[in-house]
Amino acid sequence: MAIIRWSDRPSAWQGFEELDRLQQEMNRLFSSYTGERIRRAVGFGVFPPMNVSEDADNLYVRAELPGVNPEEIEISVEGDNLTLRGERRLPEIQAGVNYHRREREAGRFRRVISLNTKINPEAVDASFKNGVLQIILPKAEELKPRQIAVKTTG
What we know:
By secondary structure, this protein is of the alpha+beta class. The protein has 2 domains: about 10-45; about 50-90 and about 105-145, Immunoglobulin-like (Sandwich). The chain has one helix at about 15-35, and strands at about 50-55, 60-65, 75-80, 80-90, 105-115, 125-130, 130-140.
C-alpha cells in the first residue's frame, strides 16, 4: 500500500491555477506588444451597461452613458435589433500627471441588442436625463392582447 502525503495529492484547483497563470502571461505579452494594459474586469468591452425590461405595451431600454453628449448618440432599429452608437470623450491627459487608477475609458462604442418581440419603429421614443438614456419601444399592434366580445344570438 502506497502512502500519499496530503501535499503530494493533486488538487482540483491546480488546473485552474495553471490556467490563471497562463492568462496572466498572455496579458503581459499583449500589454507589452500594444503598449496598453489588458483589463481583466468582468464584462470587458461592454459599454454602455444596459437594462432591458418590458410590460404589456412596451420594451424599455435604460443605458448608463456618463460623460456622453446626448446629441452624439445614434439610435437605430433594424429588424429585431436595436443599435446604440456614440462616443465618450474624457479630458486630455495632462503632462506630468500619474494615474493611480484609470477605469473610465474614452472612445467610440456600439451596442446591438436583439429584441425578443416585434416593435413599432415609427413610435420609438428616447430621452436622456442625468447620464441615463431611456428608450421606449412600443410593441407592434398585432402582438398586443385583444379583448374579444362575445355575441349572443337568439
